[in-house]
Amino acid sequence: MTTDKQQTLGASFELSGIGLHSGVVTHVRVLPAEAGEGRYFVRVDLPDSPQIPARVKAVVSTTLSTELGEGSARVRTVEHLLCALAGSGVDNARIEIDGPEVPLLDGSALEWVKAISQVGVVPFGSSPDSSFILQEPVWVYDGDAFVAALPAPLTRFSYGIDFDLAAIGNQWHSWCPGQESFAQAIAPARTFGLAHQIEQLQTAGLIKGGSLENALVCGSQGWINPPLRFSNEPARHKLLDLVGDLSLLGDFPVAHILAYKASHNLHIQLAQQLAQKMNVKG
Ligand SMILES: [Zn+2]
């Protein structure tokens, strides 16, 4: 883990798989990009191969996953791949995809992180440290759910969740990018779902690509497909989603980002507020 700005991939790599919500199989090719280009998607299956920037301004939906759009082009469930890139220090990357949804793979960011580490992460040379240091708290909330950014000496993410199901219950995780391994602490944490909600999500036309191979499922009697990779794997996965959503800022602010029972919607609301303070052009 490095905090140097302006890095890209040493070479390109490809991964394919089924999208959680669409059930569509897509092929993703991630390529090096120039300094300052940032992370962006290219829908190579559409006429003229439209580009979609992985930026806050491009968010078009936050229903169960984060969806980006530019013009009529869309790409959804971007959060795990973007988290893997940002968590691995890849600031600039061209992400070519031939369909509407990023593959879920095993439900975590692990396969992306492994592929990134195989091709390596390379710097463009020295660049000024231009990290934004948050000076005052920023927060958004909805009922008892919230996401807050607080002034702090280092960038840190913390996440709490609280479920009625005893197997999940109340759990927390905290991660400091400068001090702890992303690949070991966060990337392996998988998507999770609640057994009693699966039928209604399927009826709503969602999670067509979900299975016991790519998501942990929890029922009233406990986990249906154990073992877990961490005792607090759900909290770590929510933290993974938060980091992926905040990567739309381009750079993480120097701040403690603290979330409780939040959603993609609240994550993105906070990112929008931070984008204004950071003077990010979207
Ligand atoms: Zn997720």
From TrEMBL:
Record's keyword terms, sorted: Hydrolase, Lipid A biosynthesis, Lipid biosynthesis, Lipid metabolism, Metal-binding, Zinc
Enzyme class, first EC level, given as a word: hydrolase
Catalytic activity: a UDP-3-O-[(3R)-3-hydroxyacyl]-N-acetyl-alpha-D-glucosamine + H2O = a UDP-3-O-[(3R)-3-hydroxyacyl]-alpha-D-glucosamine + acetate
Active site: 264
GO terms for MF: UDP-3-O-acyl-N-acetylglucosamine deacetylase activity
Cofactors required: Zn(2+)
Pathway: Glycolipid biosynthesis; lipid IV(A) biosynthesis; lipid IV(A) from (3R)-3-hydroxytetradecanoyl-[acyl-carrier-protein] and UDP-N-acetyl-alpha-D-glucosamine: step 2/6
Enzyme Commission number(s): 3.5.1.108
Residues reported in the UniProt entry to bind Zn(2+): 80, 237, 241
Domain of life, source organism: Bacteria
Pfam families linked: LpxC (PF03331)
Gene3D superfamilies (UniProt xref): lpxc deacetylase, domain 1 (3.30.230.20), lpxc deacetylase, domain 2 (3.30.1700.10)
Purpose of the protein: Catalyzes the hydrolysis of UDP-3-O-myristoyl-N-acetylglucosamine to form UDP-3-O-myristoylglucosamine and acetate, the committed step in lipid A biosynthesis.
Family statement drawn from the similarity comment of this UniProt entry: Belongs to the LpxC family.
HAMAP family: LpxC (MF_00388)
Protein name: UDP-3-O-acyl-N-acetylglucosamine deacetylase
Gene that this sequence comes from: lpxC
